[in-house]
Amino acid sequence: MNFNFPVDSLNQLQTPFYFYDMALLNATLDSVKKEAGSYGFKVHYAVKANANDRILSTIKDAGFGADCVSGNEVKKALETGFGASGVVFAGVGKADWEINLGLDNDIACFNVESIPELEIINELAEKKGKVAKVALRINPNVNANTHHYITTGLEENKFGINQWDLENVIDALAKLKNVELEGLHFHIGSQITDLMSFKDLCLRVNELQKWFISHQICPKVVNVGGGLGIDYEQPDSSSIPDFKSFFKLFDELLELKPGQELHFELGRSMVGQCGALLSKVLYVKNGVNTKFAIVDAGMSDLIRPALYQAYHKIENLTSNKPSAKYDVVGPICESSDCFGKAVDLPETGRGDLIAIRSAGAYGEIMANRYNLRELPLAYYSDEI
Ligand code: LLP
Fold first, then answer.
1. How many A from CA of 11 to the centre of ligand 1?
2. Where do the domains of the chain lie, and which CATH numbers do they carry?
3. How confident is the model at residue 20 (pLDDT cuts 50, 70, 90)?
4. Is 101 annotated as a binding residue?
5. Where N6-(pyridoxal phosphate)lysine occurs along the chain (predicted)?
6. What pLDDT, on a 0 to 100 scale, did the predictor assign at position 323?
7. How far apart are CA 304 and CA 21, in angstroms?
8. Percentage of residues in the chain with pLDDT exceeding 90?
9. pLDDT, tens digit, for every residue of 164-180?
10. 371 alpha carbon – ligand 1 mean position (Å)
11. Is 265 annotated as a binding residue?
């Protein structure tokens, strides 16, 4: 299924804005549901990828849970209608008010990243006369082979409990009466396109499970996080990620114990391809080596190229004249405000409508007001 741009309608709208193809979103969600469902796996959507109201409520309606990383994400998920039993709360630095919010709402699970955090959750739960369900986020020390800014499962990263600390965690759990071990949690990184990294994760999880079982512990849930990547180079030929192979790999390689549930926290792969950032060309000017197409969207609207040198495919939806090369840049006062260098585009001029593709994940949600710009608006294929 391809992303559909209703160019005439889009041309009427004030740019820049995010545009979401809701049919593609629904088709993607159907695919996740079908493939995960065929093995009985449960998926929590990683709210951090895109917390836009319409996107979030569509995902809620499709029956997914919510993986949250802040008190406000927990609040938003509950307000959107995700039931508390489908809300999990992760993050290395949960503040007391955020933990209390989770406790007051009886969320499904806190993914705990350190012993001091476990102690505080226990203390706050005790004050409320509650028992908090927790999963231990264990750093599996698996290399996700992705951009080093978004790799999270190595010992040198700040995330999770390192394996040398596990004996201490078990001792702590035995003493702390207001936390109950519900699961083991892992996440190795994001935008992972080589499934072999997930294979390494499965093998590590199997080893760790053996270790826990040798200590008479068999948690109900194994949560292997998210991280499945999308094809930024060819957003149309693979607009729906290969969820079939992804879930099959876990089914084949992960040794679940009887009664154990397998959970996932997918963000990018569920929403990445259904969004695009739409922008218009303000000016074209000649540089020393190249032409600049200066567009009205900037790094404040989509920060990924500036922050991670991320590639996003850029298309001119107006022109089909013979092609030339352009540096596509925004209006912000930073040289890094560049969406692509030497991009092959049809001959481009003022007023042309430009689409920056694969921007549904970590796009709108990471927008900011640098240079006092307005936050980008959002439109939906079924509303225009
Ligand atoms: N679970 C945990 C514990 C995570 O830290 C993340 C993402 C996810 C799940 C969802 O991962 P996904 O399926 O979306 O790969 N802003 C960056 C990505 C940061 C990802 C942070 N953690 C970007 O634009 O590439």
1. 33
2. 22-271 (3.20.20.10), 273-380 (2.40.37.10)
3. very high
4. no
5. 48
6. 87
7. 20
8. 91
9. 899 999 999 999 999 99
10. 27
11. yes
**Is 332 in contact with 238 (CB distance < 8 Å)?**
no
Q: Is the ipTM of this complex over 0.95?
A: yes
Specify whether the CB–CB gap between 167 and 142 falls below 8 A: no
Model pTM greater than 0.80?
yes
The pLDDT assigned to 243 comes to 98
| Cβ–ligand 1 contact at 73 (below 6 Å) | no
User: Which tokens in the block code for residue 55?
Assistant: 């996107």
Mean pLDDT of 256-261: 95
Ligand 1 site, residue 191, Cβ cutoff 6 A: yes
- Would you say residue 360 has pLDDT above 90? yes
Q: Residue whose CA is closest, atom 8 of ligand 1?
A: 226
Expressed in angstroms and rounded, the spacing between residue 152 Cα and the centre of ligand 1 is 9
Q: Give the chain's length.
A: 384
Cβ–ligand 1 contact at 90 (below 6 Å): yes
User: For residues 269 and 67, what is the distance between their CA atoms, to the nearest angstrom?
Assistant: 14
351 annotated as a binding-site residue: no
pLDDT at 148 over 80: no
pLDDT digits (tens, 9 = 90+) for 42-56: 999 999 999 999 999
